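User: Structure please.
Assistant: Input sequence and predicted structure:
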Amino acid sequence: MTRPLALVTGGMRRLGAVIAARLADAGYDLALTSHGDGRAVAELAAALERNGSDWKHFAADLAADGAPEKIMADAIGHFGRVPDLLVNNAAMFGQDGWETLSAETLDAHFRLNLFAPVLLSRALVQAAGEGVRPAIVHIVDQHITNPNGDQLSYTLSKQALAASVRSLAAAFGERARVNGIAPGLVIPTGEYDDAQMERLNGMMPLGSLPDAAAIADALLYLAAAEHVTGQIIFVDGGAHLRSYPRDFLYL
């Protein structure tokens, strides 16, 4: 039997690499996009090797005109089949507030965080044709429910992407399932210290932040849930149930 194929944007590092590694363990072949040189991080490389995964890296700037359609065509051309799963994970995460918000910051964030996922989804459904129902999963953010004033262009673009889950699910109908995952803080940057992480864990309704593996677990569920569409799963330790005055970095 042909192994299922997943296209994961931003799939070579951080959360995307964890998702890709879990998909490899679940038996998927992988088309992975990034801006980089295509060298997989250690965890992903090990998963690809132990599973004998057929995989290829596609270097791309998904914010460029025509890039989403080209990536989809290139992936289909390389593997000879349409992806069964599209994971829209690649994102831009700027640090602007209302004072520095501009047409340029909005354009940059919306091109990568909204336009690229929507256009990739459209290209996939067009290529799949009738009688095939691929799964599409947008990675959004728990900030969509209780936003603060930080990372404003990013937050606005993710709120729009979250709204697209229901709209695309309704538009595609039986042609594709469209769902989303809203992570909390899962892979802290070096700006977080151990004491801050301990405090942040204690601030979550569940008493702990999720890890990247929890996001991958939700992704595998949505990939297989044949009767689920138009839904967003929050995997955030319950963070979306509370309103925080600043982004976690500043708390």
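The first strand starts at residue 5 and ends at 8.
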